[in-house]
Amino acid sequence: MRKISTLPDWPHFIIQSMADAVITVDGDMRVTDFNKAAEKLTGYRREEALGKFCGEVLHSSMCGRECPLKLAMRDGEAVTREAVLHNRRGQDIEVMLAASALRDDQGNLLGGV
């Protein structure tokens, strides 16, 4: 068995393997990563979601106002909220959103997760 740290893009493999939906965005709120659980939840394939604005994919009850990702990126603290997502199949799904800022080693904001 290979060590995961020897894989060239090992963080991506971790995100793709998680059972919880994981979506990352850049500072402009465009989707930069989208795991298989996020595909199942939203009905969008990763390839369709990448580059879109977060709200175009999540259709959350919190989009445009108290967006947990925007709050986490602005304040630098994790934010947890209950929300309703409207998926591609027309279903409303109650979820618990947990958002955090993504920063580099120097503390510069890269986006959110």
From TrEMBL:
GO biological process: regulation of DNA-templated transcription
Domain of life: Bacteria
Domain called PAS: residue spans: 14-52
SUPFAM superfamilies listed in its UniProt record: PYP-like sensor domain (PAS domain) (SSF55785)
Short name of one Pfam family: PAS_9
Protein name according to UniProt: PAS domain-containing protein
Phylogenetic lineage: Bacteria, Pseudomonadati, Thermodesulfobacteriota, Desulfobaccia, Desulfobaccales
